[in-house]
Design the sequence.
């Protein structure tokens, strides 16, 4: 569900600056009434995921819950504090992540640059913006036009825990790809 139902009218009337429009709820990886989310321990088993963020406290938070077996249970998670280190690790890793969650503003470049690099190298997996930007349709459309596959705002995570939100988002993304 959209966190603020009053936002729907505003979102529908925003001018489109990119020409590419996406379904807002689907792009923000919110569960819909049609989504049947199973156990993340089963749905995410053996998947490879990555989180890229230059804020050490955010990475530590997600690493802690991953180590507890709550975030992306039975999946493989790598975390990176910079786009450079992620790209370097990707060159040395024979199994690229199925889904990458990345901040947009990184100290050594932007998430846009990272997406551009990954797509130019033929990366076909999911790239989800995990940012403090407010979720709105204009930003979602712009992110989609830049090669992102999803958008999650850390500030919009209010009805569920950040860990549950990321587990759900990963499950929903994988379900969308299976259709």
Sequence:
């Amino acid at each position: 569900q959209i966190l603020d139902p009053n936002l729907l009218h505003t979102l529908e009337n925003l001018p489109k600056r990119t020409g590419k429009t996406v379904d807002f709820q689907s792009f923000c990886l919110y569960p819909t009434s049609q989504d049947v989310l199973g156990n993340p321990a089963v749905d995410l088993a053996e998947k490879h995921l990555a989180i890229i963020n230059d804020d050490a406290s955010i990475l530590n938070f997600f690493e802690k819950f991953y180590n507890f077996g709550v975030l992306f249970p039975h999946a493989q998670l790598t975390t990176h504090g910079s786009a450079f280190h992620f790209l370097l690790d990707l060159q040395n890793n024979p199994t690229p992540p199925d889904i990458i969650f990345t901040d947009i503003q990184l100290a050594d470049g932007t998430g846009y640059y990272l997406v551009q690099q990954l797509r130019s190298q033929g990366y076909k997996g999911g790239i989800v913006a995990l940012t403090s930007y407010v979720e709105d349709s204009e930003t979602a459309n712009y992110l989609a036009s830049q090669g992102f596959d999803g958008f999650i705002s850390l500030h919009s995570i209010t009805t569920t825990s950040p860990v549950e939100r990321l587990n759900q988002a990963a499950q929903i993304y994988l379900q969308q790809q299976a259709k």
About this structure: The helical segments are 7-12, 24-27, 40-43, 56-67, 83-92, 111-120, 137-145, 162-178.
